[in-house]
Design goal:
46% of the residues lie in helices and 9% in strands. It contains twelve helices and six strands. A six-stranded mixed beta sheet has the order 3-2-1-4-6-5, with helices on both faces.
Length: 325
């Protein structure tokens, strides 16, 4: 029996156990279906606005928790559990740029959890400085206040600096993301946060792999949970199992206040080129992105020439060491 799996799962009839897989994603669906039922047949709650016990996890008679919401929460919690992203009592800093991805992540993390332990969070926005009027920050500030979320909006000129003569060698995206992340780590320390949640999704992980292969001459990508400073902080990506299209759809469904991306190079970046390339490939094979993502979990090191050379060099060093002795 797996640790943490509800006992009722093993007492259900065989038909109820016919979920897509035996992972936590399947258990999540069964858990929600059993205790919530359909949206039109939820249990009655006599206390207005009351949130039921941790067994249920969701407020009753709340139209915000749609089928799409539960689907995204299922995969968010699965990713968080698979990689140990969130622990009991963690303090999570959620990076919110104002795009649909980051707002969807904040919305999902702010909703009741089923399998994840209790944690607290603060939303942090690093304004790159492209909006001189400050209207985007006002929109986000209003949203944070309406949702009752603790927040911090930091106004900077990072974006302008990344596109200036100061940056002559690196791409603007590299400098901008690096400086913003550096500032986020500093704010995380101020707010005693040990986790920094970023809204990178499944498509971002796939595109980053190809970016690094094409332009950095290495096979690497984003990881769902990345330790920093010997584990003092962890960058987590709870949307790692979720496709971009579903996140955009969720943002429209929830009418999230998505702000315009004002970066002057957003439409001509290398990432945009990779995205268009994958779109073209998917016209012939719709599983291209999924296949690339799966391939990252089935790496055969012995069939990579770099690994073979490392093994050969290590073997020679061991032989030299034996001779010296």
């Amino acid at each position: 029996m797996k640790v943490g799996v509800p006992l009722f799962f093993f007492k259900c009839p065989p038909a109820a156990r016919a979920v897509r897989d035996d992972s936590i994603a399947g258990l999540y669906s069964l858990h929600v279906d059993r205790f919530l039922g359909t949206r039109n047949a939820r249990p009655v709650c006599n206390v207005p606005g009351r949130i039921p016990s941790r067994l249920t996890g969701y407020p009753v008679n709340d139209d915000r928790y749609t089928k799409l919401h539960l689907h995204l929460k299922k995969w968010l919690e699965k990713a968080a559990l698979d990689y140990g992203m969130i622990g009991e009592g963690d303090r999570v800093l959620v990076g919110v740029s104002g795009g649909s991805d980051s707002l969807a992540l904040l919305e999902l993390l702010a909703s009741p959890m089923v399998f994840l332990p209790r944690f607290s969070m603060v939303a942090v926005t690093i304004d790159p400085g492209f909006d001189a009027s400050g209207g985007d920050c006002t929109v986000l500030e209003r949203y944070f206040n309406e949702r009752g979320i603790q927040y911090r909006i930091e106004k900077t000129d990072i974006g302008i600096l990344a596109h200036s003569d100061f940056n002559r060698k690196k791409s603007p995206c590299f400098i901008c993301s690096r400086l913003r992340r550096k500032r986020m780590v500093e704010i995380a320390e101020e707010y005693d946060c040990n986790k920094i949640a970023l809204a990178h999704h499944k498509d971002d992980i796939i595109e980053t792999l190809l970016l690094n292969i094409f332009y950095a001459r290495e096979i690497s990508t984003m990881v769902p949970c990345q330790p920093l400073f010997r584990g003092k902080f962890h960058i987590i990506r709870p949307l790692a199992y979720i496709r971009e299209g579903l996140i955009k759809k969720y943002a429209l469904e929830r009418n999230l206040p998505v702000v315009e991306n004002r970066c002057p190079t957003s439409g001509s970046s290398r990432r945009t080129y990779i995205k268009k390339l994958l779109d073209e490939l998917e016209k012939e094979n719709k599983d291209v992105r999924e296949n690339i993502f799966r391939a990252m979990h089935h790496v055969k090191m012995e069939y990579l020439p770099g690994f073979g050379k490392l093994t050969h060099d290590a073997h020679e060093l061991l032989q030299v060491g034996a001779v010296c002795k």
